[in-house]
Write a structure and sequence with these properties.
The structure holds 2 protein chains of 2 kinds.
Chain A: H1 37-48, H2 72-76, H3 80-106, E1 110-120, E2 125-128, E3 131-134, H4 136-142, E4 147-154, H5 157-169, H6 171-202, E5 205-207, H7 222-230, H8 232-236, E6 239-240, E7 246-247, E8 251-260
Antiparallel strand pairs in A: 1-2, 1-4, 2-3, 4-8, 5-8, 6-7
Helix pairs in contact in A: 1-6, 3-6, 5-6
Chain B: H1 4-11, E1 14-15, H2 21-26, H3 37-41, H4 43-56, E2 60-62, H5 74-98, E3 105-110, H6 125-141, E4 146-152, H7 155-168, E5 173-177, H8 191-200, E6 205-209, H9 214-227, E7 232-235, E8 242-244, E9 247-249, H10 254-267, E10 271-272, H11 280-290, H12 316-321, E11 324-326, E12 331-333, E13 339-345, H13 351-358, H14 362-375, E14 379-382, H15 391-405, E15 410-413, H16 417-426, E16 432-437, H17 440-453, E17 456-460, H18 471-487, E18 495-498, H19 510-525, E19 528-532, H20 543-556, E20 561-564, H21 569-581, H22 589-597, H23 612-616, H24 625-630, H25 634-646, H26 651-671, H27 677-700, E21 710-715, H28 723-734, E22 738-741, H29 748-758, E23 762-766, H30 773-786, E24 791-795, H31 801-806, E25 811-812, H32 816-830
Parallel strand pairs in B: 1-10, 2-3, 3-4, 4-5, 5-6, 6-7, 7-10, 13-14, 13-20, 14-15, 15-16, 16-17, 17-18, 18-19, 19-20, 21-22, 21-23, 23-24, 24-25
Antiparallel strand pairs in B: 8-9, 11-12
Classes of the chains: A alpha+beta, B alpha/beta.
Chain lengths: 270, 831
């Protein structure tokens, strides 16, 4: 795995990127109105934590994270062990819910993006905003594109702070906060990208899927060029360390190819 | 001698220029290239920009040095940029003089470095100070008239820039920050916190710029104006930035911009300019609209913040607000509502705390702080003085560790001026200093530090001749201290008088004298008061009962802040009851909430809110210690362990008979994927709570639990995320290993030194990123030389068996349990 900081214990860490316009407040995702909804976010968190947790609202009694209890039929084998298992599952669910609430309350999602020149040079070299890059996988991702969008987003500094705090006082909560932050930033970005896609569609343009420094053979060190070009430090406060880590840690950068949409095609990327 | 720019600012409103980056990009500066490069490559374009803004009528030119401190060569970038602004300003000076105006002035412009300070980021505070210092020295030498620090989004970096400017030149310093539409900096500070910080650092003007348009900045500017008597500066963007098809646009034109400018001027803003998206046309319109608007003369007290000029007529408006202290993000005001200062971070009389200090267990200290915050403390007292401890270094470390996780302001509690200075320098905010007293030596040591770094000061009413027996005597000392503070430019409202709570068991009138002094300080001196209330009960049985009544009496006599134990139910009940009876608790809501949170109100106290359902569902027979650990019920595990110990059970038998088997079941469950990470960690936390009880018991008996082995853990250099390492640490400690945690971003030499100094046989290294694996490899290579017998286990998100083999590690831990198993195997084989 050469990519962006997957976090310890295999949590998908945010990927990286930056651009030049902060999202206006009315564009900020609002938790309650979020299309993916709370149950889906909890499912994502469970997935990140490697848990089998087929929870939706009204299924609190389903033993989750408990060995040998994969489904409702097992739950029916009522026994005192079962009672304990389901109370543990309920505790686990409560922990996930609590973590999600804390992360959404602490998060201050911001994003910034900028539209730059894209050129395909000889020898498989790409030129992004005038900066040469050699990456076969990025080239594949951007083939057929006419421009490239540099995109960066973050959950902000407070999300990091509650994580550090939990690492000192409640490590179980800390692990769930990591998962919640990963799920939440992905959900926020998806909403945000929907808005961007709609804007480009008006110009007859469409967007490729996101591609982050560290994916495939695009080295993580490309982050340095990315930050120089988009300058997310200035707009959304995402900074880069010497080792190319982003701070705040719950941040994503990505390159997004822009290409002419097929006439009358609904939206090839959705 | 006042600088020309400040004397001009005391006479009229000054105007600053507009955007630089926007202007130069219009002229062809490529995206991704820093504007400073044009100082040498295209100086004529930079000069033309300055001239255009001068033609528009501006008084202050910001040199093209915004990114200098973050560039490869701060000196050259600063010097080249300032020289161009200087030249343009000098060209225009004769015409201005003819019109009866001073200036125009050239400002050395300091923007953010683009990096985030440690511990969130990887830029050490002193390194940031040094980058700005180099920029400031070069800019001052090149002829700057003032230093303009702007677009700051983090109070830590803001402090670094201001301190660097103050320490390296005599020029006036203006400091401007960037708020978002919620009125906060990127790292969370509100206008009051920024004002407290910058007023404490004695800058010459404070301001806001960038991020928003004039419309959105107006309410934020009004908040700032209400918090400070310093001149306020505002440079808005030309509207809210808006992305259109991937390009940034600003929609407010010159007329709209100027119209808003007039509203800022009317609100009392004394410096106006423009930020992103503004052009010479915006600035021209702004000046034409605002030039002749009435100019509010500086408040009489404004001078009070300048060194050496304070005194009798100290600023009335600020004094009426009472002392304000701040953390990196919020303020606490000492005034009508009493403030609770938590006293628990203090080793006096606490064996466990002393042990933590000796073992350099900073996490223990921070947890004491977090627990007090949860219990209702509004400020945390920090005392780390203990014989044999390097107090200055420990104070700095404690301050940095606490402010990384708690938003509460800190009270630095030390009698060592070196420890005080280290703490103040590290502290991101305006601290409460505990304490100064009436002795010459004390005032000479403490007041200069308070004057330099900012801070409210606790003043003890004692001096060379001891503690006066009478209120008159104590008031006299308080007066002496206030006068002395004023001579350092520290206003009376930044002093909190401590009239000294003495043991009533030693003198039956002791409490009354203190209370009388307290009342008279408020009535006669008009300044705030603070008291460490716990001392009064010294030597008496049922101390909390005495303490609680005394607290109530003190509050009734005008106490502004109580230094007390927020973990004491008696004290907290008195605290909440007083607030309710004093009319400070709307509809008694806080009192009712507090009562609902008391242990007797919560039938089974869960380890965390999330664990509550488990605790309630414990119907199936009585809970055993082992079961509590298995189910991750931390407070139950602690309680059961305490009960067993009190009943005379052998601590080691509890470990072997209950805790170890329970952890074994959970550990195996994790390996079989029937227990997941949060469950494993909940059990680990529950076991840790039980171990803590055992530790206390052993410590009280003068014993220690023999460790199974000592292990060094570190996240390698360059890596600043350490949750993985912290998870491994919690588990290893549970399994009986002693962990020397070196933290994150650790240099190979530091690991090697710790290993050789402590005879360590196992090191665990964590790396999160591909870019930091080379640091891991370097650390292993060094250890092979300095400690060939030491084994190295590695883990972390990017790590694989293949990677681990390639860099020469002895073991790859695919998860935290695997590390525990390896340690068990290694140490049992070696036994």
């Amino acid at each position: 795995m050469s990519g962006q900081s997957p976090s310890p214990e295999g949590f998908p860490e945010a990927e990286g990127g930056v651009s030049a316009a902060a999202t206006a407040p009315e564009d900020r995702p609002v938790f309650d109105a979020h299309k993916s909804g709370r149950a889906a976010l909890i499912r994502e968190m469970a997935r990140y934590l490697g848990m089998r947790l087929p929870l939706t609202s009204g299924e609190e009694e389903t033993p989750a994270g408990v060995p040998g209890a994969p489904g409702p039929e097992a739950a029916e084998e009522a026994a005192s062990a079962q009672t304990q298992a389901s109370s543990q599952a309920a505790a686990m669910t409560a922990l996930l819910e609590d973590a999600l609430d804390r992360v959404t309350a602490a998060s201050d999602f911001r994003s910034v993006s900028g539209r730059f020149e894209l050129a395909f040079l000889e020898d498989g070299i790409l030129s992004l905003a005038g900066t040469p890059v050699r990456s076969a996988s990025l080239k594949r991702n951007l083939s057929g594109c006419t421009e490239v969008l540099f995109y960066a987003a973050t959950l902000g500094a407070e999300a990091d702070r509650i994580l550090r705090r939990a690492e000192l006082s409640d490590m179980a909560l800390a692990s769930c906060l990591q998962a919640a932050a990963a799920a939440w930033i992905e959900a926020c970005i998806e909403d945000d990208m929907d808005g961007l896609r709609a804007g480009f569609r008006k110009e007859g343009l469409a967007l490729r899927p996101r591609f982050s420094p560290g994916y495939g053979d695009l080295p993580l060190e490309f982050q340095r060029d990315f930050f120089r070009i988009l300058r997310p430090q200035r707009r959304i406060g995402v900074t880069l360390t010497d080792a190319c880590l982003m701070v705040p840690s719950k941040s994503v950068t990505a390159l997004v190819g822009i290409y002419p949409a097929e006439p009358r095609a609904e939206d090839p990327q959705l | 001698m006042t600088s020309p720019v400040l004397s001009e600012l005391s006479r009229r409103r000054l105007f600053i220029d507009g955007a630089c980056g926007t202007y130069l990009q219009e002229k062809g500066l490529a995206p991704g290239r820093s504007p400073e490069t044009w100082n040498s490559e295209r100086p004529e374009e930079v000069l033309a920009m300055h001239r255009a803004y001068l033609d528009a009528g501006c008084d202050i030119l910001t040199a093209n040095t915004f990114g200098a401190a973050g560039s490869d060569d701060p000196e050259s970038a600063a010097a080249a940029g300032v020289r161009l602004a200087r030249r343009a300003a000098d060209e225009a000076a004769p015409a201005r003089a003819a019109a009866g105006k001073a200036g125009p002035f050239a400002a050395l412009d300091l923007g953010p470095t683009g990096r985030l300070l440690a511990p969130m980021g990887d830029l050490p505070f002193e390194e940031a100070v040094s980058l700005y210092a180099r920029t400031v020295r070069a800019g001052a030498a090149a002829g700057a008239d003032l230093v303009l620090i702007e677009t700051m989004g983090d109070t830590g970096e803001l402090r670094a820039a201001v301190l660097a400017a103050k320490e390296n030149c005599d020029l006036p310093v203006f400091a401007s920050v960037t708020f978002d539409e919620s009125g906060r900096l990127l790292t969370g500070a509100d206008p009051a916190a920024v004002a407290a910080l910058l007023t404490g650092l004695r800058v010459d003007a404070i301001g806001i710029n960038c991020s928003l348009g004039p419309e959105q900045l107006l309410p934020i500017a009004q908040k700032l104006l209400a918090c400070t008597d310093l001149p306020v500066l505002v440079s808005p963007n030309a509207g809210l930035p808006r992305t259109q098809g991937g390009l940034v646009r600003y929609d407010v034109g010159p007329e709209g911009f100027a119209a808003c400018g007039a509203r800022f001027a009317a609100a009392g803003v004394r410096l106006l300019g423009g930020c992103c998206g503004t052009t010479p046309a915006h600035i021209r319109a702004l000046i034409e609209t605002c030039r002749d608007l009435p100019f509010a003369a500086p408040a009489p007290g404004a001078a009070a913040a300048r060194p050496g000029t304070v005194s009798e007529n100290a600023d009335v408006s600020a004094a009426s607000r009472g002392a304000v202290i701040s953390s990196f993000c919020r303020t606490v005001t000492f005034g009508d509502e009493p403030v609770l200062i938590g006293e628990r971070i203090n080793p006096t009389g606490k064996k466990r705390f002393q042990q933590a200090l000796r073992e350099h267990d900073i996490d223990y200290l921070v947890r004491e702080g977090l627990a007090q915050e949860d219990a209702g403390a509004q400020v945390l007292d920090v005392n780390v003085g203990l014989p044999g401890i390097d107090e200055p270094a420990m104070m700095e470390e404690a301050v940095r560790a606490l402010q990384a996780v708690t938003p509460l302001p800190l009270q630095l509690d030390t009698s060592d001026p070196r420890a005080l200075e280290r703490g103040l320098r590290a502290y991101t905010g305006k601290a409460l200093i505990n304490s100064v007293n009436g002795k010459e030596e004390s005032m000479e040591a403490v007041f200069p530090l308070a004057a330099k770094y900012g801070g409210a000061v606790v003043a003890l009413t004692l001096d060379e001749s001891g503690i006066p027996d009478t209120a008159d005597g104590r008031i006299a000392i308080a007066r002496k201290i206030l006068e002395r503070a004023a001579s350092y430019g520290i206003p009376a409202h930044d002093i909190l008088i401590d009239s000294l709570a003495m043991a009533v068991s030693a003198d039956s009138r002791a409490a009354l004298v203190t209370l009388e002094t307290l009342r008279r300080v408020r009535e006669e001196l008009g300044c705030g008061t603070v008291l460490g209330v716990s001392n009064v009960s010294f030597g008496l049985p049922r101390r909390p009962a005495i303490g609680a009544v005394y607290l109530t009496m003190a509050l009734q006599n005008g106490l502004c802040a109580a230094i007390m134990n927020p973990m004491s139910p008696e004290m907290m009940t008195a605290w909440h009851a007083f607030r309710t009876l004093a009319g400070l608790d709307d509809r008694c809501a806080a009192y009712i909430d507090y009562c609902a949170s008391l242990p007797e109100a919560v039938s089974a106290a869960p380890s965390s809110p999330a664990a509550a359902p488990s605790a309630k569902a414990s119907a199936a027979g009585p809970l055993t210690l082992g079961a509590a650990v298995q189910r991750g019920l931390a407070s139950d595990a602690a309680r059961l362990c305490r009960e067993a110990l009190d009943a005379g059970e052998d601590p080691l038998a509890l470990i072997d008979g209950q805790l170890v088997p329970a952890l074994g079941v959970v550990g195996e469950g994790f390996e079989k994927k029937t227990v997941f990470l949060p469950g494993l960690l909940m059990s680990a936390e529950a076991a840790a709570a039980a171990f803590e009880e055992i530790k206390q018991k052993l410590l009280a008996a003068g014993q220690e639990r023999a460790a199974r082995g000592r292990i060094v853990l570190a996240t390698v250099r360059g890596d600043i995320h350490d949750i993985g390492k912290n998870i491994v640490k919690v588990l290893l400690e549970n399994y009986g290993f002693e962990v020397l945690d070196l933290g994150k971003d650790v240099a190979p030499e530091t690991v090697s030194d710790a290993v050789t100094a402590n005879g360590i046989r196992l090191v665990g290294l964590s790396a999160l990123m591909t870019t930091t694996v080379p640091s891991m490899e370097a650390t292993i290579a060094l250890l092979r030389k300095t400690a060939p017998d030491c084994r190295v286990m590695v883990g972390g998100a990017v790590m694989t068996q293949e990677y681990a083999d390639r860099i020469g590690a002895d073991f790859y831990g695919k998860d935290a349990m695997a590390s525990v198993r390896y340690a068990e195997q290694l140490f049992s084989a070696q036994e």
